[in-house]
Design brief:
By secondary structure, the chain is an all-alpha fold. It is 68% helix and 0% strand.
Length: 95
């Protein structure tokens, strides 16, 4: 099995979950008690899907520099998505 299949499958799974969360507000049952901001959770999943898609696209880049750049961008976007996931689980500020 080629190495780009697994990140591609993760990208597809996260994209479907993120779009479903953004469109309908669906959060998996095991996360419902944690997620406070559903929209941020959905956007984090979509960004993670893009990150994994970039990671699997890095294998198709002809130049090693392009592959490294795609890898760096995918890692940075994955970190940004993880920050969004953490923020989506924080309690809302009271006014």
């Amino acid at each position: 099995m080629d190495w780009y299949v697994v990140p591609g499958a993760f990208a597809l799974l996260l994209a479907v979950g993120g779009i479903a969360t953004l469109r309908t507000g669906f959060v998996p049952p095991w996360l419902r008690h944690r997620v406070r901001r559903v929209a941020l959770y959905g956007w984090a999943q979509v960004i993670m899907a893009g990150s994994f898609a970039l990671q699997s696209a890095g294998g198709f880049a002809g130049e090693p520099a392009a592959s490294s750049a795609l890898g760096l961008v995918s890692v940075l976007s994955l970190l940004a998505a993880l920050v969004l996931l953490l923020v989506s689980q924080l309690g809302r500020a009271r006014d």
